[in-house]
Amino acid sequence: MDDLFGSGRDNADGSDDLGVADGAAGDGGADDSGHARGQARSGAGSASPRSPLAVRMRPRTLDDVVGQQHLLGQGSPLRQLAAGSDATGPAGPSSVILWGPPGTGKTTLAHVIAKGPGRKFVELSAITAGVKDVRRVMDEALTARDLFKTTTVLFLDEIHRFNKAQQDALLPGVENRWVVLVAATTENPSFSVVSPLLSRSLLLTLKPLTDADVEGLLQRAVSDVRGLNGKAELSADALAHLVRLSGGDARRALTALEAAAGVAFGDADDTDAADTHIAGAGTAEPVTIQLRHTERALDVASVRYDRAGDQHYDVASAFIKSIRGSDVDAALHYLARMLEAGEDPRFVARRIVISAAEDVGMADPTALQTAVAAAQAVQLIGMPEGRIILAEAVVHLATAPKSNAAYMGINQAIADVRAGLGNGIPAHLRDAHYPGSKQLGHGKGYKYAHDAPHAVATQQYPPDDLVGRNYYVPTANGAERDIATRLERLRKIIRGT
Length: 497
Fold this sequence. Notes:
By secondary structure, this protein is α/β, with parallel strands linked by helices. It has 4 domains: 13-205, P-loop containing nucleotide triphosphate hydrolases (Rossmann fold, 3-Layer(aba) Sandwich); 211-297, Helicase, Ruva Protein, domain 3; 312-399, Zinc Finger, Delta Prime, domain 3, CATH 1.20.272.10; 417-495, post-AAA+ oligomerization domain-like (Orthogonal Bundle). Helices cover 44% and strands 7% of the residues. The protein has helices at 53-56, 77-83, 106-114, 131-148, 164-168, 171-175, 189-192, 195-199, 211-223, 236-246, 250-266, 271-278, 291-297, 310-324, 328-340, 345-360, 366-381, 386-399, 405-418, 480-495, and strands at residues 41-42, 96-99, 119-125, 151-157, 179-185, 202-205, 232-234, 287-289. The strands form 2 sheets. The protein has a 6-stranded mixed beta sheet. It has a two-stranded parallel ribbon with strand order 7-8. Strand 3, helix 4 (131-148) and strand 4 form a beta-alpha-beta unit.
């Protein structure tokens, strides 16, 4: 089946029909997956016929890049870098940091930039490289520039895994332009890249591919000589399934297509006929990749989530805001997304407890009881059954009436305390149990509430400078509607109004 996935034939123009951009490594090239690739690699090359489909289909020019059009306009820094000029002119930075989810083209852009005239491509992985490797590359880059007038493009994958000392080792080469640094990261560079390196580089944010982008990429891979070379075709259902499973990740989409194609040919009834077809017989009809082939190849959608990065906070934020907004369906989606990605269910339970107090509050006092019970139950029984309990709590909170009156009340009270308000304590409220307290007037005039009608006495409770200040302002939602009426009567009695 090797010929299906690449024969290694030369094109009419003399190039390898499976090759990637000059400068790509011959062993399969770099990717954004985070796998170690060993020591630095350099030089031009072509993808092996046995290279993964995602490597063989890597664009050779910026015009072939799918998506990221917001970074690829005429005159853009990436266009200038790929053409061999500085990113923003002679005084501007010529190194870039590419920040985006996996499979959005970070490695591809690095390879395209490396194709510029007078370029040499070197790759390091932050997983395996150390300060010595960085310094060695810098020394070689300086030699290549001075002796051979060659610019070294250093592609550094997973730069967020470099510690401060390792990132600092990059600074001389970047500042003096011994290298054009193209660094890739899936983490927010503001938190993971040192400030001096950020200030000397362009920060470019890549966006997830749209469904249309992924669909076009798959169609191209089916027909392109570097891909399936027209020996297979995709049914509409299979194409839609692959697009859905990709999650905006080009590499995942192509990997799934390659696997589905293998399943499709493996299912051929007539083995001899299939072999003839795969070998490229002129009369053979393309094998159709059906939905059942894609389902067998890959049946779980990718979940983009990082428990220690942006996605952890972004999904948790969307989860809480969906509960607050009473969208129970969106809240369940984000709950499922966190749990499927392996998020700690105790973290989810804590967020639910906070939401019950902050967003539901006294509009439905039982919401906090449900949330606390859910947190305790998850601790008791664990996963996967814990998902049922968390879902019940989420449904309760999302569909409950909402009030943040208690939350706003404590915030305002704290603000007054921090502002220096609330001086002293009325004498009649002070502790009168220790010897000598009565001589100080402590407790004098205190009215025991239970002796008054309805157990509510007219009496000053706050400090003098806070008399009449209202912190808790109940809403008309849910149970607070009744609380508001009762509170009005209570305040009139207590304050003697």
